[in-house]
């Protein structure tokens, strides 16, 4: 649709759904309205956007149906649940979500996590699988809403890019492996990604491959990949409809035992509370929390990307609330955990979406399909659905940026590989735990063993600099200028003390004063303050005075609370290194 892409011709007065205040809209200062950006959008809706949103919604629906069914089957649930988990989240997110065109629904990155909980607990019972999936959605929705209300939207920033890449690459490989049996037309008992691969290889060598199903699956995959870059031709729709027509016309389900989707239940989902047994509580809680973290990590990245492109702003805390409300609602209507979609959102964008009305139109179109034509996709082969999921998994792999990371920082690349291996070997849920542990270790390592330097003054360069970089820099007799490049806290306090005492011991002249260049010190805790007091005692015993330069006022405030400011006195603190050096020279 040339000329309708909102990224090329953005609508006048872009909607800042996450930042608009009720008072700005003339509807009073009602606090609850702030948590429903969809109402703000409605109050500012322009009739000129309607045609674009309706057309984009209809185009989007053609992709939502096959993808929703495919991801439900990949998650170990009946295909119809994928449509329920598409309709409900789109309607709820339109009210609570801050992003203007983000599309929510079942996601390949979550499929393997859901499958890891549903498959062993359901025992092959579809109804039990639906209940487990619904409860996982309730757990993830509750966690996300509470986190959003608690303004914890910053937590995903704790996962570095290499760790996210490693985790997502592991998820992509796990998803791909999980779909290979369906693609080849047989089934294996899942025991873990690498062990499953071994079992799949054994089944192929044993001659269990259904060659007709495999040909259909590979043909579907080829069409999807060939048409992936097209904005005019919906590759997934063409591929799955073509596969369903071929299977139906040639009666391949009966003649060649090709597994098919079958008829979908007619009608819309009813409200139901997904009660689970006591023995299921722990794995469902762990799985629900895991998908909450993964879904928000993906959604926040995608939401920020589209906010930048549409020149709007998105509140990550409101994004958590919107995503959580969508998960919570779908859990009560026979759905399962959902996330944003990096493949369906571009479809809405390319089709000309202006607002979340696009998602509402798409949801209503699917609802009409279930009411009027539930048998339309009866002949859809499961190998074609597996191809849809495999194509999505291929898109999850991140290779190019990892090459860049390898070139510029080897250790972060291998950190990513460790996370990837953890997911590939142990599975998605243990892999999430490993990713979090690695992230915490990475975060603490920089502060635990930070860089420090002894400073001198190089000829021809202003200021004081690291003598390891400038070996010829002048050092002032009797003075040690020491810089500490990290917050001072319990994990590095003893190291700080050791390095200063080592700098004193290694000084070429007897030391009378140590000045800590403290600009990089952004915080100090009780353990570190006690270490400072001990260091001061140790230095005074040698006739050395400890001073500080460029210490930030908030850190000084903490020292006052800890009683150290009174101990040291105002005269030991200097606004600049030059001021500290001048005072030393004047009193030396």
Notes on the protein architecture:
By secondary structure, the chain is mainly α. It folds into two domains: 43-161 and 196-383, no CATH class; 452-587, STAS domain (Transcription Regulator spoIIAA, 2-Layer Sandwich). The chain is 60% helix and 5% strand. β6, α21 and β7 form a beta-alpha-beta unit. α17 (400-408) crosses α18 (410-426).
Layout of helices and strands, plus pairs?
Elements (H helix, E strand, L loop, with lengths): L30 H4 L2 H7 L6 H25 L4 H18 L7 E2 L2 H15 L3 H24 L11 H24 L8 H13 L5 H16 L8 H16 L1 H4 L25 H29 L6 H16 L7 E2 L3 H7 L6 H16 L9 H15 L3 H9 L1 H17 L1 H21 L3 E5 L8 E2 L12 E6 L8 H13 L7 E5 L8 H15 L4 E5 L3 H10 L1 H5 L4 E2 L2 H11 L1
Parallel strand pairs: 5-6, 6-7, 7-8
Antiparallel strand pairs: 1-2, 3-4, 3-5
List its salient traits:
588 residues; two-stranded antiparallel sheet; Transcription Regulator spoIIAA; mainly alpha; elongated; 2 domains
